[in-house]
Give the backbone structure.
Amino acid sequence: MTVLLRRLDEGVPVPGYAHPGDAGADLVTRVDATIAPGERATLPTGISIALPEGFVALVHPRSGLAAKHGVTIVNAPGTVDAGYRGEIAVTLLNTDLREPVVLHRGDRIAQLVIQRVERALFVETETLPESVRGAGGFGSSGGWRAADGGGAPAVPAPGASR
């Protein structure tokens, strides 16, 4: 698939995939930034794109920034609609409560994943068909601990027999 791209800053690279088969193309920041503990910052990427109708670009956090520095994206995933032509910007949140995160121009800050989109026709009705889950919402599938009976079976400890 071809995506038209406008580079708003000649000094930043075009988004690219680090490895064959990767879903996310790396986005970089075009500015230096320090994000204090618990704070957020909106960083410009220096690019704008034109997606074909029927597609969306989703801006996902980078797993390394999240795992090593506690940096995530406030509205993850961010949505870049097919009709949007402005600069893609990423609002990062430093969840670390002790250490600031220092980012430099050209640092990879997010991943852009392009997907097909289905548009729904919403039909109003007085009742909805029954389902096994029903109206069960947050926490309705069990607790988060394996012992709480939520979803997956408990995982045996290393070396334990089944």
Remarks:
- The chain has a mean pLDDT of 92.
- The longest strand covers residues 108-116.
- The two ends are 48 Å apart (CA to CA).
- DSSP finds one helix and eleven strands in the chain.
